[in-house]
Amino acid sequence: MEQLFALAADNLISPIILSFALGVAAALARSDLSIPEAAAKALSIYLLFAIGFKGGVSVADHGIDGTLGLALLAGVILSAVLPLVAFGLLKSMTNLGRLDAAAVAAHYGSISIVTFVAGTSVLESQGIGAEGYMVAVAAAMEAPAILSALWLVARGGGSGSKGMDGALMREIMLNGSIVLLVGAFFIGWATGPAGLAEISSFIVSPFKGVLCIFLLDMGLVAGRGLRQGGGILRPGVLLFGVLMPLVGSVFGLTAGLLLGLSTGGVALMMVLSASASYIAVPAAMRVALPEANPSLYLTLSLGVTFPFNLTIGLPLYVAVAQMMTGG
Amino acid sequence: MQTHKAKRVEITIEAVMESRLTAALRKAEVTGYTVLPVLGGSGRSGEWDRAGQVSRASGMVQVVCIIKPERLDALLDAAFEVVERHIGVVTVQDCDVLRAERF
Q1: pTM, whole model, 2 decimals?
Q2: Domain ranges of chain A
Q3: Which class in CATH covers the domain with range A2-27+35-225+232-325?
């Protein structure tokens, strides 16, 4: 327990977390500090490329074992099942209607790639290795949750759902984040350590600094969301926003241990299962469930669960993974 | 200078619906339109601002079409099918254009 607190304290005073805190504080204080939309997109492209590339290089360096396919399968199953768990919790803890509960649940089955990036950064800073293919698992976990949420709505009569058409499916599967992450992963895999050596001064050294600026922006967006939409979050919904990541992390822990992943791999599986999407799923929900309240799921995912995972969740998941794997 | 009567339709809609709306307009043979970015705003669904956003989920765009008055109903029917259940505003204004053959 002492180790857990020390880890949490170390994490809290890291430049990454403090940058995020600065963003939240600036937004809540109504500062005019802002990162232009185009700059925020450029930062996210950089981070996705770097994390995908480094994952591919790690696979090229250490080789692939049989657990890759199983890890991908586990990711898909987790993404499909977690919305059902989230939906059950929401129905018992809150008075949200079926449509809003299903839309929120979809976010908690899918993943937050920024939380994943921050998780890999925490592991790196502690010298804990992880399977490089966890990047591919992250990509595989983006979409199934959306299908589960639409199924939940259809099961209740389907009112309010526009369903899943071919165009929406294509938009989800070929979402820019997924294409970049998976594409960079394959480039890293194909070019290996030699490829990394060629561009390491661009994608390794500046990585944490760029992550700080990106998290400053995330803090600003989260703070603005809390300021503008915080009033709609009732106590039960707020409690769900911090309880669900813990529940999800237990599912991730179980899957990671069953697969026999390394300490870092188990921690990242917990991070993926605990995180909530705020890029791919909100866009899909706006198309498929237009009558669900966007302020509710965006504020909850970005304003409550993301900060929780970043400050308390990450050190907790890493510590639990170390404890359970003896790493 | 000679001018001609036309209708200017402004459709402010969620960014995620942009491609669906423009596809519906093209299907209704409205091939001329302009898509404009929208910086931020406030409405029934609360305030929003595009600053810092990496997702299109909370962004809006504005699609502007200028057409001959007799084609207005076809355009509105096509647009309504897309925007009916989504956040947005549709407005129609009278306007004058210089080159009627272009609309």
Answers
A1: 0.86
A2: 2-27+35-225+232-325
A3: mainly alpha
